[in-house]
Amino acid sequence: MGELPPAVYVILALASFAVAGGLLVWVAGYVRGRGKESRGGREKPAVAPSAGEQELLRVSRVKKGKLVIFVQGRRYRHLREITDLQVGHETIEALKAVLAFAEGWLPSVQQRSTQPSPMKPTVDQEAFLQQLRQSPPPLQRKRPGLFGRSQAKAPRTILEPPQFVEEIDDLVQQRLRERPDMAKRRIGLTTGKDGGICIHVDLQTFDSIDDVPDSEVRGLIQDAILEWEGE
């Protein structure tokens, strides 16, 4: 048997190189594919809330990198845009939970909250309650209060308006829970952008108790104020 021509050896060598190159390309593609699958597994979205849970607050990042806020599925730019009283209360509770979650990691915010502001607040406690009810009720004369305080009694510590508004609103909500006949009423107290009082009664908003046409609602808020003054 004669020897093979040199051309045959050249062809066999080229075929071997082609097979080896194909194997290398396949291995590289396989490795890249596994890497993408592993990264894709890590980037899977979080599990959706169960049927017994409700999403109150969500922060999302849009394509331009800006963070946006969603409250119960609806996008808002500021807390004051929320007009529904119940949604507003639930949003405040969600924000409190977020602050508690970040407790100890927000030193600048904590420092600003503990240090007294050198600027005079827009409205102090006296002016707030005077706006809330222009004239004191008859019960006010039977015991010292904000407008009939004895000189010997130490003055109540002046609080920032949102704090004592929230305290009085808590007393209002407590009275609503004790009144089954008013369980479906939406009554609450907040402060406006100018620092003034806002009394929310169902779908209406008033600047003072005297403007509220419902006598039961007026009496309920006045009782809450009297209890707050007596604490």
Q: Can you put this structure into words, describing what you see?
A:
The protein has two domains: 58 residues, no CATH class; 106 residues, no CATH class. It is of the alpha+beta class and 231 residues long. A hairpin with a 2-residue loop joins strand 2 and strand 3. The chain is built from six helices and six strands; from the N terminus they run αβββααααβββα. About 11% of the residues have low confidence. Helix 5 crosses helix 6. Strands 1-2-3 form a three-stranded antiparallel sheet. Strands 4-5-6 form a three-stranded antiparallel sheet.
Radius of gyration: 34 Å
Tell me the β content: 5-15%
Mean pLDDT, all residues: 70
Structural class: alpha+beta
The number of helices is 6
Q: Uncertain regions: pLDDT < 50 for 5+ in a row?
A: 135-159
What share of residues is helical?
40-55%
Spatial sequence of strands, sheet with the most strands:
1-2-3
Q: What's the helix-strand series?
A: HEEEHHHHEEEH
Shape verdict = rod-shaped
Domains, number: 2
Largest sheet: 3 strands, antiparallel
Q: How many strands in all?
A: 6
Distance between the termini: 118 Å
Secondary structure blueprint with pairings:
Blueprint: H1 6-42, E1 57-61, E2 67-71, E3 74-76, H2 85-101, H3 107-114, H4 125-132, H5 161-177, E4 187-191, E5 197-201, E6 204-206, H6 215-230
Antiparallel strand pairs: 1-2, 2-3, 4-5, 5-6
Helix pairs in contact: 5-6
